Amino acid sequence: MVTEKKVIDDEGLNQFVSALIQHGYAVIAPTIKADRVFYGVVEKGSEFVREYSNAQNSPKDFLFPRMEEILRFTDDETVVETFPKAVKRVFLGVRPCDAMAIKHLDKLFNWDYADTHYNKRRGDAVLIGLACNTPKSSCFCTSLGGGLGPHHKKNVDMMLTKLDRSSYLIEAVSELGEALISLLECGVLATSSHDEKALELRENAEKMITKRLNLDETFKVMDDNFDSAYWKTVARKCIGCGICTYLCPTCHCFDIQDEGLFRLRFWDSCQFALYSKHASGHNPRDQPHKRFRNRVYHKFVYFKKNLDEALCVGCGRCKTYCPSKVDIFKIVSEAEAGISEYRSVEIPK
Amino acid sequence: MRKKEFDSIDWEPKIIGFLCKWCSYAGADLAGSSRLIYPPSINIIRVPCTSRIKPHFVVKAFATGIDGVLISGCHPGSCHYVNGNYKARRRFSVLRRLIEFMGIDPRRLQMSWVSASEGFKWADVVRKATEEIRQLGPNRLFIEGET
Amino acid sequence: MRASETNDMTGKIRQISRSLLEAKEADYVIGYELETDGSVCPVFIDCPEEVEKLVWNDRCIHNLASFLKKTIDDGESRVAIVSKGCDVKSIVALLQEGQIVRDKIKVLGVDCSGQRDEKGNLLLKCKLCRDHRPLLYDSLIANERVDVREFDVDSVDYSEVEDVEKMSVEERLRFWKEEAEKCIRCYACREVCPLCYCVECFTDQNLPKYVPSTPSIKGNFLWLLMRTFDLAGRCTGCMECDRVCPVDIPLHLLNRKAIKDVATLFGYEAGRNPSEKPLLAVFSEEDPDEFIK
Amino acid sequence: MTARVGSRVDGVEESIYKPYNGRIIWMREETPDITTFRVALEEHEVVDSFTSFKPGNFVLASVIGYGEAPFAISSPPSQRGSIEISVKRLGVLTQVLHELCVEDRIGLRGPYGNDFLRGEPKGKNLLFVAGGIGMAPIRSLIHHVLDDRKSYGEITILYGAKSIADIPYKKEFKRWDRMDGVDVVLTVDPGGETPDWDGRIGYVPNILTELNTSPKNCLAFVCGPQIVIKLSAQTLSNWGFKSRDIISTLENRMKCGIGKCGRCNVGHIYVCKHGPVFTYEEIMKMPNSDY
Fold this sequence. Notes:
- By secondary structure, chain C is α/β, with parallel strands linked by helices.
- Chain C is built from ten helices and five strands, in the order αββαβαβαβαααααα.
- Chain C has helices spanning 3-22, 66-70, 85-96, 124-127, 159-166, 169-182, 188-192, 217-231, 240-244, 251-266, and strands at residues 28-34, 40-45, 79-83, 105-110, 139-141.
- In chain C, strands 2-1-3-4-5 form a five-stranded mixed β-sheet.
- Chain C is globular, with a radius of gyration of 20 Å.
- Chain D folds into two domains: 2-112, Beta Barrel (Elongation Factor Tu (Ef-tu), domain 3); 116-249, Nucleotide-binding domain of ferredoxin-NADP reductase (FNR) module (Rossmann fold), CATH 3.40.50.80.
- Chain D has a seven-stranded mixed β-sheet, with helices on both faces.
- The radius of gyration of chain D is 19 Å and the shape is globular.
- Chains in contact: A-B, A-C, A-D, B-C, C-D.
């Protein structure tokens, strides 16, 4: 598959965005909102922010929205499904970690039963990745398997790499990308020097990520030490809110409730006590540290056992926006040392 | 609940009345037995004391589209439970300013002291409350299905 | 805060904590630990060797009192807690409501000249602060450069709240419905608040259901309204809820409006005096009742 | 239209959360807070594919405006054309269900989950131990077994409830007791009996210790509150029951029933997708502080 590569400048990128809009695509890209970077619908190219580490929210907000109406009941009690309107969408500037998160969501929402609401929103979406040249200190995407890294292109349809101050290497990755690259009027064909520059950028981006995690070893250590006092100790700092799960690009838990004549599906979090409370009142995860442990295990043990992938993409959002700065990387990477230290100590109160 | 378009003359506001059973409920009963005429806009809920009313009841009423809430209890000093009405007074004076701050017109939450012998006063209180809430129009805080 | 100040205060905190832990007067110390990017985060210190982690600088924003009621559910463990003036007001409010046992808590009061956010400017709560020195402590980490004069009560600046009050009722409704639409019901404001310790929050109950638990505009609006009411006369204005809200809803406007009302209506301020009864638990004959017919 | 029944991964324009329209054709009030509903499906073309369930499966019943909740199917597969669910009044939805009457509409989604027959009960002696509302799935299995009585050995049924008034399916227990080869032991918690009560008095796990059923060629099905499952399973294994032959169900909170909403997990096992029926051997492998 000959992947056509072009080099365009900022203006070319703006022209590309307006071309996409003219072709009926809604373009969703990171923009500034209340002086923070959020994914949002952009009207013109200049709103697409290019100098940022990662947006606070992730494409999950658009593929699996915080609340959606799944069913509506008409007056004569017939059930009417409410499917999302089919709208052609382009996610522009998706970091490789968010793209891998979307792949995980695809897998979960089509595990045996196809979640039609998710598939309808996902089906028409084109992903245009943006390579990470300056990863943050809280990023650790390179140790999460599946070849994930700051310049990883496997899960997107097109890939943008910022070569220098104002020129971007744009390449089609999938057929969908091939079709779209024709919209680019301007821009010059990429030469081997551009490829070398891109490769060089990729290497030192990967070098900038100093946090290393041995996934399989962590999996084994955690799988064998579910009841260790380590989990109660590291969980003390966690206040039990839902920020980490709601801003996490891979967290997919939801609740379904009826309001009036609508059946609504909306985000839920395993950090809340009601999440697993039985009708009889019994709650398997009644204490805060059990709920905390459940989130960490779901990402590094459970999802791996069920769908053989780690459910974390190392984007660092849960640490950045946590009120107590709970760092999942620190907890998981120090699990082995921490657990052995607690094997001798009596469980602290 | 479909909301028709109203002009304020013939539209009858829907008011929830929390009445303490020792005084105001008896007063309302007296008003009824002495055949006093007052607007049928009030739907009475009997409570043991005004301090039994949880502010969440009032807010839930507004959420379900009720146009006004009237809380009525014993005069200060003659509460069957000695200080129930004092506590309620303090509670609802805070709540009233809070709902005003968030954009609900405070006149939609009214409070009155009506004793068991004040049938006339009860009829008058309801007449005044209905008139005042009628000026405010229907409760359009939340549009149905607005997610 | 100059480096010399932070070093000697950090040294004092470490020294007091080490003595408490060694003398077994406290099972663990809750304090602040330095993060790689210069900010701090809460830390639980179990043994004297770990005391070196404790630090004090002008980024110690968190109100550690929120850990008092929730993570310590057995009530037996004795805790030492590093607390600024605003944090101590939360501890006093918890004492007023009989939620914590005074002699189980060792308060390491710290003189505070105001904390700064990551951009370096003074926090709003510090601009309005009148408690540079905690009003209650077991051991004080003093700092002469902090002026600890007692402020007079009516110099409190409610200008932000008054701006919203000046709006018309319709404008305020639209303003708060716009804010409510942003809320994703992550409940960080509830979980971070030291005084939100109910076993079952009113928004989690469903028999009867007071507030819809879906993040709809109606549900969020009522959540903001009733959360503020449940904290009226209890909130001490530590503005942690404002800090942690991931979608930046100005929660401090609501809470400070309640604080202003409670001060004007009843002349009451939460977290001032540990032996004083909470506001809505008591009454007085002279309460204002101009709105009662 | 076969994809309609909990559509598999075939992208049919069919939301997996859309309930079928069920209509109540028969109701019986078993106890003051348990009512059994027989629900028939209106969409005729899916009736046979929907009612080809096995004992142990569950459905998600819903009432418009009040939500959805999982209920074990308590009628046997041989009862074609409709399913029965026994509902205990506990929360908002179950309260509303109890206020419904015949001809009212209930939404049904499912059947989901695995079933009791994975223990191959054919040709074996069977011991049923149930407590409280745990009788609902067990009743489906008992009827299924009695439909083909000769291919099963000795049957013992031990059931316990809080009080006499709380014992559901009273007529069926009497009918089963009169059958040969079937031994029914009913018990009520201490204090729940009345003077003319001829059954046993005591908690289910304690009464179980007196039965002393032989584990040879015998399967035990245990269903009910978590404490009943734990204690009964221990007693049975002390008698020599292999943990593979003790079969139970886990009643976790469920919302979607198909392994997506994430809340019914015990460790990495989703009770709705990999369960709800588990052998005691599997339950022992699960992290014990998580269920």
